[in-house]
Amino acid sequence: MDVTLIGYGAGNIASVRFALERLGARVRITDDPADVPEAERVILPGVGAAGYAMKQLNALGLTDALRAFERPLLGVCLGQQLLFETSDEDGGADMLGLIDGRVTPVISGPSRPSPHMGWSRLHIRRDDPLMQGVEAGEWVYFVHSFVCPDGPATVAYADYGQTVPAVVNSGNRWGCQFHPERSAKTGARILKNFLELPA
Amino acid sequence: MTARRIIPCLDVKDGRVVKGVRFEGHVDMGDAAELAARYRDEGADELVFYDITASPEGRTLDYSWVQDIARLLDIPFCVAGGIRTVEQAARCLDHGADKVSINSPALERPELITEMAERLGRQCVVVGVDSAFQDGEWKVHKYTGDPDARRGAGKRTLDWILEAQSLGAGEIVLNCIDQDGVRKGYDIAQLSAVRERLTIPLVASGGAGAMEHFLSAFKDADVSGALAASVFHSGAIAIPDLKTYLDAHGIEVRI
Question: Among A111, A119, A185, whose Cβ lies nearest the Cβ of B3?
């Protein structure tokens, strides 16, 4: 199993790499757009702010390479948000635009601090190969202050006073808002499912 | 909603876990990586590693050790100890840590919180606050890892926590040092007072000695997580038993 991890200076790729290696994957880390078209599958991680991440992807010439990629692509955490069109973060950011909609702030409230930080249950909206072997109600670990729009792409979601799309899919693109690399057995299963998607 | 987090804290000195009473008189509690793996398997929701000597001795922590822990764990973990620049914090994350916690260096230079939040995202930035009751109010202390270096920081706890939040902290760990290591329960009054004023997650620390102390922290102070050390290291409380107990008392936990 070969997987290409985009290392573009926005976030923590070590823990994603270690999780993939625990599953026996061969991981290549790159920031070179020339490596993308030939990749078997690509993971786009990300921690931090959307505007900064897009600036990095644009500067490295990765934006168009990711848009054109036709095999399985998985955005993790901020990487899921980047799949959408725009984000309110950083005063408004244009993103990859692979899935329709706008990313908005998590709404905080009593007993609902923001960031949404911690383990929440997955509610499953529809079947998807990424969710094979994952039951409704399993726990995964979230850390985020912005939330993707709920729509036809939503495969699974968490309830945090609002619907938090947790797994999304559109064509060959998937996203996980939570951190599968830090979500114990459930997260490992989802990463394994991604590695086994036909490329 | 999120499950209430149970967070074992490993105070680390040279790769060994140590624990003292009121931060003094450290006792060896075992190998840090072995204990971390045990807590992972028992259902800990997150781990915190404090290099307790790093800050007073003016050194930072060992990045290759952070990387070894990151390979081992499939749950989130936070590292702390002597991190005083954005570059050091970034290196911890580059080596696989999920969050970094800063304490004394943030008191010396509060802008560090903002710099870290802007570069790394506020969700990675935990501000640890050591608080003691003194002259009728809760006050912040620094360098609490070393009894000889420890001193008051000249700030009121609530003022400092609100300042840290507005500067960009993503989470506060409030360690009530009057309670630390004495197992008489978390400082519910202080935690509640802080919780009411914060919009970011709050983690309780200091004083856990029995399962009902955790229940009270979640039920009465509404904290997101409860951190404890000696009760877990000594085996006095097993995490699976604690979670079963909390679940039976209506607290949502990850089981």
Answer: A119
